[in-house]
Design brief:
This protein is α+β, with helices and mostly antiparallel strands. Helices cover 25% and strands 27% of the residues. A hairpin with a 3-residue loop joins strand 4 and strand 5. One of its GO terms (molecular function) is protein serine/threonine kinase activity.
């Protein structure tokens, strides 16, 4: 475990997220305490999902680490943070963004989602897509993150996806 924790940068439903340093690079480290079976299931499913995904608009997964007290999920770090912070800066007029750039950002998200929905052998449904789960790189690339609620579809699950899972204001109608 060659990870140095720099500071806490977020809190999730089952975890805390830290800025870390690993292999001389900054990374985001999701930390899950080893106390809750539900949190363990979410962690394992997210790690399995991220390990399989390789796309320019999906967060890059570096690995996992275990200790007696917690599990760590290591992914790429985005200094600019999430899209919700960018949208807030736009609405308070702290920054400007051209229509062309906004359309380009939407295409990044659409490309990432198209990749997930056409993933073989079984498509993946994110189930919690919202601005807080889209990260922005320094060079303006958007990447989808937080796959804790995602689900891989197969023949049996296609008709059983009716539960209201996700963030209330971002649920489909």
């Amino acid at each position: 475990e060659d990870i140095t924790f720099v500071k806490k940068i977020g809190i999730g439903g089952f975890s805390n997220v830290y800025l870390g340093k690993w292999n001389q690079s900054f990374v985001a480290v999701k930390s899950v305490e080893n106390q809750d079976d539900r949190a363990d299931d979410v962690f394992e499913k997210e790690a399995q999902t991220l390990c399989a995904l390789k796309h320019p608009n999906i967060i890059t997964f570096y690995g996992i680490s275990f200790s007696e007290s917690r599990k760590l999920l290591i992914v790429e770090y985005f200094e600019k943070g999430s899209l919700d912070k960018y949208i807030e800066a736009l609405t308070t007029r702290k920054i400007n963004c051209s229509l062309e750039k906004k359309i380009n950002y939407l295409l990044h998200i659409a490309n990432g989602m198209a990749y997930l929905h056409s993933y073989k052998p079984n498509p993946i449904v994110h189930r919690d897509l919202k601005p807080a789960n889209v990260l922005m790189s320094e060079n303006g690339i958007l990447k989808i993150c937080d796959f804790g609620l995602s689900r891989s579809l197969n023949y049996e699950t296609k008709s059983a996806m009716t539960s209201n899972i996700g963030s209330f204001y971002y649920l489909s109608p």
